[in-house]
Amino acid sequence: MGQTELTNSTPGPTLSTGSRRLGRLSFKARDLPVYLILLVFLLIAIFPFIIMVFTAFKTSSELARGAFSLPEVWRWSNFADAWTQARFDRFFFSSVIVAIPVVLVSTALSVMSGYAFGRMTFPFSRALFFILLLGIMVPLEALIIPLYHNLRWIGLLDTYWALILPQIGMSVSFGTFWMRGFFAEVPQDLVDAATVDGCNSWDTLWRVLLPTAMPAITSMMVLFFVWTWNDFLLALVLISTESLRTLPLGLAFFQGQHTTNVPLVAAGATIVAIPAIMMYVAFQRQFIRGITGGSIEG
Fold first, then answer.
1. Is the sign of the CA dihedral 168, 170, 173, 178 positive or negative?
2. Do 172 and 106 meet the contact criterion of CB atoms below 8 Å apart?
3. If 0-12 CB within 10 Å is exposed, 13-18 middle and 19+ buried, where does residue 94 land?
4. What is the spatial distance between Cα 143 and Cα 239, in angstroms, rounded to a whole number?
5. CB atoms within 10 A of CB 52
6. Which of 131, 153, 195, 268 could be cross-linked to 82 through a Cys-Cys bond (beta carbons 3.0 to 4.6 Å apart)?
């Protein structure tokens, strides 16, 4: 009897283990073309950056022999020369002065407006939401000339405010759209439980929903920082004082002064790109969770 039970019970686990292995192998084989396509696009995306970094360590003579070769000697002095000659320390300070208020203020306003449009009912909410989306749909190139005259009329032209206020306006448009989608998917049971516990709308937002929304908020903050840090058009049109230039604008003037010294310009471009890359690397887990997360568990 015991032998019969052993004989009958032995094939079961063996078959299930084999089935799991076969399913795992078939899953990998099925997804292999997707991974190959993603790898190709990854190489296309990072290849220009890799060439720029390699160029930053070369001399002009090495660059003339080929742009795709490794540097014979890794010249870190190119970065020091670019930093001092281009006055990147001052431009870096200007970029920080602009980026930090834009990210903080835009995030706070986007969270509150996204919560209002996503969870509340008030007159003309749908129409107001579509009006707010004009900040995403209308390109900056169509607004830059009226913006220039308006800022000059109120006396804010050629100041940090000329960069901060328009960036906040454009960022809040996207941020409201972003956070509205998150708050609209919050289970109603969670909001009802907070109401039963005595929370009003304000307490429900900051005490109950905000902790669950942190991945989406972090992703939004990373996007705000990258967009503000890399902005060029606003600084080009609205800033004329050299000390107020941001890093992208300072890099453009630096490139115009050193058109023949490509490695020095590449070193400057690498310096400008590093903060945005570091921001993404530091928050990549939260960023990916905020991008891919479409629901609340629990």
1. negative
2. yes
3. buried
4. 16
5. 17
6. 268
- Output phi, psi for 114, to 5 deg: -65, -40
How far is the C-alpha of 78 from the C-alpha of 277, rounded, in Å? 20
- The pLDDT score that the predictor gives to residue 105 is 96
In the numeric block, which tokens belong to residue 268?
A: 């400057």
Q: Return the pLDDT at 157.
A: 93
3-state secondary structure 241-296: CHHHCCHHHHHHHHHHHCCCCHHHHHHHHHHHHHHHHHHHHHCHHHHHHHHHCCCC
Q: Which residue ranges of the chain lie beneath pLDDT 70?
A: 1-28, 66-67, 287, 290-298
Residue 59 neighbours by CB distance under 10 Å? 17
Q: What pTM, to 2 d.p., does this model score?
A: 0.80
CA 58 to chain centre: 30
Amino acid at 184: A
The per-residue pLDDT for range 229-266, each reduced to its tens digit, is: 999 999 999 999 988 999 999 999 888 887 778 888 89
Which candidate, 108, 115, 98, 106, places its Cα nearest to that of 135? 106
Nearest to residue 175, comparing CAs of 125, 124, 227?
227
User: Helices marked H in 10-87 — which ranges?
Assistant: 11-56, 60-65, 77-85
In the chain, what are the domains?
88-292 (1.10.3720.10)
Count of Cβ atoms closer than 10 Å to residue 85 Cβ: 14
Do 222 and 66 contact (CB within 8 A), yes or no? no
Q: Dump pLDDT digits (tens) for 105-116.
A: 999 999 999 999
Residues 6+ apart with CB under 8 A from 62: 69, 71, 72, 263
